[in-house]
Each structure stands twice: as structure tokens, then as C-alpha cells.
Amino acid sequence: MAVDTERPILGITMGDPFGNGPELSVKTLSKPALYGRCRPLIIGDAASMEYAAAAEKSRSGIAAAINPVAAVSQAQFKPGTIDVLDMGFIKRDDIPGVPESPKPFGLGSTEKGGEASFQYVRKVIELALAGDVDATVTNAISKEAINMAGHHYSGHTEIYADFTGTKKYTMMLAHHELRVVHVSTHVSLQEACDRVKKERVLDVIRIANEACKAVGIENPKIGVAGLNPHCGENGMFGREEIEEIQPAIDAALAEGIGIPEKKPTPADTIFSKALGGWYDIVVAMYHDQGHIPLKVKGFVYNRDAGRWDAVAGVNVTLGLPIIRVSVDHGTGFDFAGAGEANELSLENAVDYAIQLAKNRKGREK
């Protein structure tokens, strides 16, 4: 199916059917303005989406019709209707409670939910590789649940890499102008340190450079974080900066990649500098080094009201032959089904996917 440069088709996975994904999908796709910018299609189960739509109507009065389809070509892509490529894994009897009185499902990770959510992801990858959708967006899955179902992956990123045959990839988190990519993600801290090697750091710097260009930054400025406190203090606290990170930076500079400081930057200052405009993107050495600053910035809890005012930010898998953007939060099992989930991160992910799809089409011309 040809790309509409004004309204790309987005394949949006529903996430774990017993998590917050169905509710977030209904809240996001019930907004008419979205359909002027893209053509969204949920990959999931009609029963879950119908339950979530009924619960949202009971809670807020906003009504949306669910349109189950068997193929992308059957979707209507019009405001007031949410198209769902119905996978048929979840039936109404699988969903506890009644939508007229929303309350948490309380199911947590289940084999059924894991199998369903895994198959949604496989399907959207298949659609993207075939060119039937222009970009993919993922709601949250439970890593525990998909492993319970026998699919031994540590997350979306690894599933996408496997089913697209991608060897060099990384995760990027983004919240407005703050962007972070990772040398490693879902491994132990000890293994993360062991993975800080010149070739991997250089690969991630290259991917970061291309990621910035993909969102329209012509001459990216890249900050590269150190691994050790104070970047090792000339070897006093570790030698990774000297033996692995600096050689990677030198090689990237030789390729013409923009690294303003020409050396690793201490992790305790690099993100403040990024927020100040020093860098367009930061290369973090491991999962929490990059995730913590992004979530401190994007997640805002209202202590007086006892709720999250914002759960913002997106997760982009870089290096793939297809576009994948995700929410930057979990399944929210503790309150899934209660109507309390905040859709801001999914809206951010949709916005990012639209931008990436349009920019990719522009660069292919």
C-alpha cells in the first residue's frame, strides 16, 4: 500500500490485553484531530477494545465505535470509528468486570495475555515489512507474560530485531528535545559494563547520528557519556573511557560525526548539558544511565491529587528496516481497567511515528 505523505498508516499494537493498552488506545484514537494527520489501525482484539470503549463512554461520555477488520484494506480510518485488526485471542468472557463500573482487572501477568500481546507484535512487524503500514507503534507488554507463554525475549526491541533480521540496533528514548540512545539495555549491570567496547560504542554513535537526521536534524551534535564516575579520572576509577570509549569517539570524529567535546562526558552532567542545548542526543552506556533522566523529566506525579499528571516520552528502536515507536511506560497492571491511565505517552509515540514516516518518505525521494 502506497504511503500517503500527509497521512501515513500507523499499525498500533494493543499491548497486553489485561494492561493499560486497550484503554490508552481508545482514549488516543477517540480524538478526531488525529485522523487529519495519520490513519491509525489497532492490532489486537476487538473484544478488549469494545470493553475499553464502553468503559470510556461510561467514564467520560466519549463514544467511539469499534470496527473489527481482517485486513488493512478494510479499515475506514475516520473519526468516531476505531479500526481494529482483530486477532481473535481474547473473548469477552476473558475480561473481568463490567465497563459500566470500571475497576482494576487485577490479573497481572498471564500466559494468555503474554501469548496475545506477542502475536500482536509479530503481526505488526509482518505488516510493516510488507509495506501495508508505514510505521509501527507499540503499547506496553509484560516481559514476564510473554516468557510465560514460551517466547523468550527481554522486550519489544529484541523481538523486532529478531523478526527483522537486524544485528546492529539500539533503543532511543525521547522527551521533547532530550534524546538518549543506549550501548546496552536489558542486561545485568555487570554485563552492561562488559559490553562497553569500542566497536559497540562506535556503532551506537553512528546510529545516534542517523537517528537525528531521521527527525530532521541536519548536523547532529552528539554527547557521549562516560561509564565510570568522573569518566574514570584518568584510569583511577576504571579504564573503559581510555581503552574503549575514547577510541570510539576518535573513530566517529574521523568519519565526520559531530561530537562537540571530542571526549566522553561525565554522566552526572551530560544530561543537564543536553537540556541546555549542548547536544541533540546523548549516548548512554547502559539502561538506567539513560532511562532515569528521561523519566525524571517526563513522568510527573501529583502528590496532592494522588495521580500522574504526565507520563510522557517515547521509546524508538533504531537500526531497523521499519519504524518502531513505543510508549515509555509499563503495563500498569495495578490500575489497568479502572480508567485512570494517562494517554500522553501514546500520543507522543504516535506523533513521533508520524514524523519519522514522513521524514523517511522524504529522504527516499
UniProtKB/TrEMBL annotation:
E.C. numbers: 1.1.1.262
Keywords: Metal-binding, NAD, Oxidoreductase
GO molecular function, one term: metal ion binding
Top-level taxon of origin: Bacteria
Cited SUPFAM superfamilies: Isocitrate/Isopropylmalate dehydrogenase-like
Coiled coil stretches, renumbered: none
PANTHER family named in the record: 4-HYDROXYTHREONINE-4-PHOSPHATE DEHYDROGENASE, D-THREONATE 4-PHOSPHATE DEHYDROGENASE
Name this protein carries in UniProt: 4-hydroxythreonine-4-phosphate dehydrogenase PdxA
Organism: Breznakiella homolactica
